[in-house]
Hints:
The protein has 122 residues and is of the alpha+beta class. The chain contains one helix and five strands; from the N terminus they run H-E-E-E-E-E. The protein has one helix at 2-60; strands at residues 69-72, 93-94, 97-98, 105-108, 114-117. The strands form two sheets. Strands 1-4-5 form a three-stranded antiparallel sheet, with helices on one face. It has a two-stranded antiparallel ribbon with strand order 2-3. A hairpin with a 2-residue loop joins strand 2 and strand 3. It is rod-shaped, with a radius of gyration of 26 Å.
Amino acid sequence: MKRKRKIAFIIEAVVVFVLIAVLASIAVPQIGQMIKNDQEELRARELADIQGAVAEMMADSPSGTLQPIGPTRDMGQVKTNDATPLVLTDYLRDNGDFVIKSDCYYTFFSDGIVTQDCSYTD
């Protein structure tokens, strides 16, 4: 009698293990895709925030042009061509925090165009 219980327990344990393995094989790729989608959304939102800040900075600038720079992650290097240049970091604060959170690099052109490169390495 005890031997049958042990065999039944082992069979149940194997079945549970197989079910967990099957569910994990389905869930793990989905979790990876969700992380990738979140990263893409973060990058797109970050680019839009930077483009908006550049547009606002250029509207406040007497010259209306930037000093070309990039690729860079240091937004403190992005300045206007004014006698007293405006600095992008002053326009990129959200409740006191920087909005730059991704691993992307940015290139800034004199006319205010901003490009994003997320494959760039030092």
